[in-house]
Amino acid sequence: MTAAVEGPDFIALQVTDVPAAAAFFEEHLGLRRAPASPPGAVVFATSPVPFAVREPLPGTDLTGDAVPGLGVALWLRTDDAPALHARLVDAGVEVAGPVQDSPFGPMFTFTGPGGYRLTVHGG
Fold this sequence. Notes:
With about 120 residues, the protein is an alpha/beta fold. It has helices spanning about 20-30, 80-90, and strands spanning about 10-15, 40-45, 50-55, 75, 105-110, 115-120.
């Protein structure tokens, strides 16, 4: 039998300021930290896939004109996209536009820590 990938098992965004990025995800998105995180990272208690912010891996350049995550789409699930959209706008977070209908429910995109573009859907 050949080995096969079952699907994503862990997602981490590389950021230059881990404490600020962790605070953003806690304060604006309501994520909770997992009981333990490795050095240089903050892991959140998300399911079904764990999510983290971490220091950049060796050889990763996040300075200058670098566009973090270019070509990668990261979607986060919520129970109320319109309410989260309003909360982020009120907090001054850069939101790409209004909530829109999608095949996955109401959705919108915002710019998170380190310049990552994140999409939220649901509710």
